Amino acid sequence: GSVYEISGNECCLSTGDLLKVMAVALQKVICEDTETGQTMELPPTFKGEQGYPARPLQPPWAQPHCPTGLFQPAPAPGPYPTLRGLFLKGTGQQGLTLHQALGRWDRQPQPLLCPAIGPHALLLHPVYEVHATMHLRRDTVKIPSTLEVDVEDVTEAAQHIHFARPLLLSEVLGMEAALPAQAEILEGPSGPAVFESAWVPRLRRGQRLQLHGHSHAWRVLASAPSSGRHFLLSSTYQGRFRQRPRQFKGVQELVAGLRPGRPLRVVVTQDCEGQGEDVPPLCMGDRLEARGLQGNGPGTRLLCHRHGGEEEEGEGEELLLPLGLGGGFVEEACDSKKYGLAELLEQQPLPCEVRVVAPDPGLERDALGALPALRLEARLDQPFLVGSFCEEPEEGFEIPPRWLDLSLQLSEGPVHPPAPCTRRSRVEELTEAFYYRLLAQLPGSPAPPPPRPPKPAQAGTGPGGRHPSAHRPPVPGPLPMSACPAPPLLPLPALPQPSTPSQYGRRRPPRDAGCALSSFPGIDSNSTEHDYETVDDNVQKTIRKMQAIFPF
Question: What b/e string do you get for 42-72 counting C-beta neighbours within 10 Å, with b at 16 or more?
C-alpha cells in the first residue's frame, strides 16, 4: 500500500482496497531537456503562444516545417529511433498538439522538438489524476499517477460488488421516500455541542438508529435571565404561561421596549436624580407612559407622560428624558390569564417575558416550572427528524440535522410502524456557546438596544456650571459640648433629596420631618456656611436602627 493526501487529509491505500476508476484527468506535463537535464511544467492547455516565446536559435530543418506551438520528433541518431513518418502518419499536418503528441506512443516517451520551448530534444512525462470511488467514502478519491502502488485489474471478477456511499443526516431530509429506515452511524457529530440532553452523547460511531420521518413542530428560543440558561421549546409543549411584567434598567431599555401602536406604561422602581433644570428627578412609585422619541442625534429624548396621584386624577406632566438616564422601571400589567404556547404567541409579539404557572404534565421533570421568569425571544422553523435508538424504539427524540449533522449508512432492517413518543424533545436545554452562535445567525433575532449615548462632561454639568457632586452640602464638623446640648438623634451628613423645586410639575406633599438639623441650638438656619437638609421619616428610622445596633 501507499499513503497519499486528499485535500490536506492523509489517507491510506491498504492491500486489498477496492477502487472503481471513474475518470482519468491530465493535470500537467513535465518537460525534460535531454541535453541539459532541466525540467519545466507545461499546463494541459499549452499551445506555445503565451508564456513560451519562440527563441531565435532554431535548427534549420525545423524552421520551414514545424509551427511554433507544435511538436515533431527529433532526428536523434542515438538510442531513440526516428519516428517522423510514423509520428505524423495520418495527421495531415506539420506537427502535433500536446495532447496528440502524448497519445502517439505506448508508455515509452520519445524525444520531441518544440520551437516555442527551445532547440534541444525534449522528453514529455505526463502526470494524471485518477478519479475513483471507494467503499464507504462520500467524496470521489483523487489519486495522482505519480503514486507508487501496485494495482490489479479485477473488473470482470468484481461486477457484483456495490460501493456503499455514506449519507449525511442533512441529506436524509430530502429523502422522504426512503423513510422510515434503519441506519448505522459511521461518524458522530462534529463541532461544538448543541443540546445538554442525555441522548446526544449516544450519537457515536456504530450506534444503530431508526429514522421515522419529519417533525411538524416549530420551536421557540427562550432564556432564563436569572440563571443564564437557554432553552428550545417545541410547539407540542403542554405547559401554561402567564405574562410577566417587563423590567427595564434605564431609559435606553425603555426605548428598546417600545412597540408601534401600543403604549408602554411603567412604574418607577428606583429613585433617579435629575440632570440640571431640564431633566426632573423620578421618584419611586411614579407612573409613566412612554410615547415615543423626539429629536435626532445626541439630543434625542424619550417623551413620557407622568400621571398624577390618586388625589390628582387626570393631572400629570410631560417629560423629556435623555437616553442616558438611569433608574429602574417595571411594566404595568394586569393580565392574569393562563396561555398555551401557541395562544401566547398569537397575543404577544416576541420578545416577551413570561412565567410558567403550570408545568407540562407529560414531562417527568419540567425544568421551566422552577424558573421565576422566562424570556421568549424568537420563533424558529428549523426542520427536525424524528428518530429513536434501536434498543429503545418506543422512546424517541427530535434531531436538527442542520445543527447536529452526522454521517450514516441506511440499512435494510425493519422499522417499527408506530412513531415513538418524543416527550423528551419538548424542552431542550442549549449550550451557551451554541445559543449565542444561533442568536447571531437568526435573521429575525431581537435587535440589541441602541448604543448608550456618551456621558456628559465632567465640568459644568450641574446648575451654575458646578460639578454634579458640588451641590451636596458639606459634612458638618463636631459641635463643641459647651455650645449646645446633645441632640436626640446623631447628626449625619446631608443626603441628596430625590426631587427638585416645584418648577418640574407635581411634587409629593412633604412629610413631617419631625426634626431638622437647622433647628439644633447654636446653629444659624440662615447661615450660608452650613446648609442642612431635612431628614425624612425613613432616614430617622434608619438612624434609630443604627443606634440600637451601635450604641454611642
Answer: beeebebeeebeeeeeeeeebeeebbbbbbb
